[in-house]
Amino acid sequence: PADCDKKTGACTGGCEDFWAGDSCQIECHCAAGPADCDSSAGACAGGCLDFWTGDSCEIRTATVSYDGLFTKEEGRFFGDTPDHITAYDDIDAGECARRCLQGYGSYDGTNPACLSFNHRPAGTPEPGGSRARCWLRSGNKDTAASPGSEWDSWPHRNHYQRKNIMQPRDCADLFALGIQTSNVYTVNHPQPFQVFCNMDTDGGGWTVIQRRQDGSVPFDKLWAEYVQGFGNTSGE
Questions:
Q1: Where do the H-state alpha helices sit in 144-221?
Q2: What count of other Cβ atoms lies within 10 Å of the Cβ of residue 110?
Q3: What does pTM read for this prediction?
Q4: What are the C-alpha distances in Å from 102 to residues 31, 61, 75, 195, 217?
Q5: Which of 57, 66, 123, 175 has an alpha carbon within 20 to 30 A of 88's alpha carbon?
Q6: Cα separation, 80 vs 147, whole angstroms
């Protein structure tokens, strides 16, 4: 605050990460990170993060379909074995994408980050092809030395690679992804952690930072305890 001009609002020492403009009032959502944000105009030379559009990536889009977050290559299978996370049966490509982004079952959606997935629709003529199958990968064609020996071997499978290496920063991002059930989720702003997301009140997408239910947790605490965090994400 000492760096802020009381008359004009200008910040003489520059803006914090993700902020730009003379008064640091423009929030950047650049796909390449804060270093890609023009300090004056807020423009993102390398494009916007998912959920954001506009010259300065300042306009939030309403919702994003799962398949809109991935680039699809038909008739391809990314088979770099060390990058295998887990696999699921009997789900479509949209659900496979959701599990890549948010996890499911033994996979928490974070460790490791899912960068791509393979999907085989149900009813294909290959062995076992009567059932749909989804394979999650921690790598992609950009991170691996090669796409693997099976890249051209499975004409009835499709490979999906994430357009931007992104984790939902808050519950609003999750809501935009179509995850609209109130629950505890993992978000990443800037390090992965769990929060309770209220997807029902006033349009949904709320990251809950304080919730009183039954009085089981005392809220009369020091500021340092609030900074560290206390309570339970599923309760108070």
A1: 171-176
A2: 16
A3: 0.55
A4: 19, 20, 25, 13, 29
A5: 175
A6: 6
